[in-house]
Each structure stands twice: as C-alpha cells, then as structure tokens.
Amino acid sequence: MSDLVGGALVVLGCALAALSGIGQVRFGDLFTRMHMATKPATLGILLVAVGAMFRIEGSGAVTLLLLIIILQFVTGPVSAHLVGRAAHRHGDWDREHAVVDELAEVDEL
Amino acid sequence: MILVALVLVTVGGAGFLYRLVRGPTLADRIVSLDGLLTVIVTAILAWSAYHRDGTYLTLGVVVALVAFLGTSAFARFVEGRRR
C-alpha cells in the first residue's frame, strides 16, 4: 500500500516536471516561462521527495529528503525573484503584452 | 510505475534543454538552467525511489545548493551588465 502511494506521488511530481518542460517550449515570454519553471521547483520536488520517503527505508534517507525539501522551499522563490528582477531591470521581457507593471512604479533605475 | 516517472522527467529535461539552446536572451538561459538543475534533482530523487537506495540523496542536496548559488550569481551578473 505504501509502495503504491509513494509511486503515485513520484509519478505526480515527475509529471509536473514534464509539464514545465513542455511549457518551456510552448510559452513565448520570459515571465510566463518562469511561471512554468518555478512550479516543479517547489511542488514537484515536495511530491517526489515525500513519495521517496514512502519507498526508502532508514532515518538517514528521510533526513536528507527533508533537507532537500527545506532547501528548495527556501532558495527556489529567492532565486526566481532575483532572476525576475534582473530581467525586468534589463528589459528582457515582453513589455507590450503586459497588462500591469507594478515594479516599474516602485523600482527606479 | 516509477519507470513512467523517469520517462516524464526526461521529457521535462528535454524541454528545458531546448530553451537553454534556443533562448533569445541571457535571462531565458538562466531560467532554463535553473529549471534544468531542478529537474535533475527530481530525477535523482525518482531514481533513488525506484531503486530504494538512499546513497545518492546527498547528491540531490548538493545539486540543489549549486542551482541556487549559480542562479543568484548569474542574476547579479545580468543586473550589472550594461543595457
């Protein structure tokens, strides 16, 4: 039973990774692609790591998996934010199709 | 069942690799490199789950750390570059 649950969670997380890879090919703008790329960085890793916890025995493995989850949850949004701000300041994005640009009002550079 | 997951991870990695090669700007390449490393961590975890072996989980921690440090360093580099 726990094998089935673990396998299902791993498949779900990997499906998220596949979806984000497809999104990288299909989406046309930097920020839409970033939106697609940052989903498996937190949710996908969480699903796969919890699924792996069901299948791997030993407390050391669970500790490492928890470490990976915490690390990814702390660093993933931060690095995405850094790249997004750098691209916005540099002008590497689709300004014409943007509905709202709140960062331009705050960020004077 | 987990073999299906490994195939799915390969599809995701191929998408990120395509954007890494094609991506018109440097920021696109940074985003896709970060995503590719995330997909690699996912693949390491799925591989460990498939073999029920926790030996390579340390590698996952290291790759996750390198992904963060590399991405933030590249982001600073893009920000400092002249328009």
Tell me about this structure.
The complex is a heterodimer of chains A (about 110) and B (about 80). By secondary structure, chain A is an all-alpha fold. Chain A has five helices and no strands. In chain A, α1 runs antiparallel to α2, α1 packs antiparallel against α3 and α3 runs antiparallel to α4. In chain A, about 45% of the residues are buried. By secondary structure, chain B is an all-alpha fold. Helices cover about 85% and strands about 0% of the residues of chain B. Chain B contains three helices and no strands. The mean pLDDT of chain B is about 90. Classes of the chains: A mainly alpha (about 110), B mainly alpha (about 80). At the A-B interface, α1, α2, α3 and α4 of A face α1, α2 and α3 of B.
Beta strand % of chain A: under 5%
Q: How many strands, which pairing sense, and closed or not: the largest β-sheet of chain B?
A: none
- Which structural class fits the helix and strand makeup of chain A? mainly alpha
SSE pattern of chain B, N- to C-terminal: HHH
Poorly predicted parts of chain A? none
Write down the oligomeric state.
Answer: heterodimer
Number of strands of chain A: 0
Mean of the pLDDT scores of chain B? 88
Considering DSSP H and I runs of 4 or more, what fraction of the residues of chain A is helical? over 70%
Number of helices of chain B: 3
User: What is the gyration radius of chain B calculated from CA atoms?
Assistant: 15 Å
Distance between the termini of chain A: 56 Å
